[in-house]
Amino acid sequence: QVQLVESGGGLVPPGGSLRLSCAASTKWFSIYTMAWYRQAPGKQRELVAQTKGDGTTDYAEFVKGRFTISRDNAKRTVYLQMNSLKPDDTAVYYCNRWPDWGPTSWGQGTQVTVSS
Questions:
Q1: Which residues of 77-105 are buried (b: 16+ CB within 10 A; e: fewer)?
Q2: For the chain, how many helices (H) and strands (E)?
Q3: Is the Cβ–Cβ distance between 15 and 6 less than 8 Å?
Q4: Which of 5, 28, 39, 89 has the greatest number of beta carbons closer than 10 A?
Q5: Residues near 1 by Cβ (< 8 Å), separated by ≥ 6?
Q6: Residue 73: partners with Cβ closer than 8 Å, 6 or more residues away
Q7: 67-96, pLDDT tens digit by residue?
Q8: DSSP 101
Q9: 51 contacts 78 by C-beta, under 8 angstroms
Q10: pLDDT of 26-64, one tens digit each?
Q11: What is the DSSP letter of 39?
């Protein structure tokens, strides 16, 4: 069972920035496409960004140009740099593989709140 531990969330004003981190326990981290997801209150979880093992990336339209996903395979860690944050970005952010490892694989997530 892979362990995923997210961190870095917080309360920021609109236009602010945060950097999220996610440490994964699997030794095969480098071969997986890793992703960040988010879930806002009352909404389904949605894919935000993903990065393949070679570092190539893809983004949801609603974060393109504002968020940057990256990874450090040696540290088994994936990051999400979030700039120009908007109130609509408020959600719990999770990392997981894409596709995810299953319903029991999700970590506790990290809360991001964008508010003045």
A1: bbbbebeebeeebbbbbbbbbbebbeeee
A2: 0, 10
A3: no
A4: 89
A5: 104, 105
A6: 29, 30, 53
A7: 999 999 999 999 999 999 999 999 999 999
A8: S
A9: yes
A10: 999 999 999 999 999 999 999 999 999 998 999 999 999
A11: E
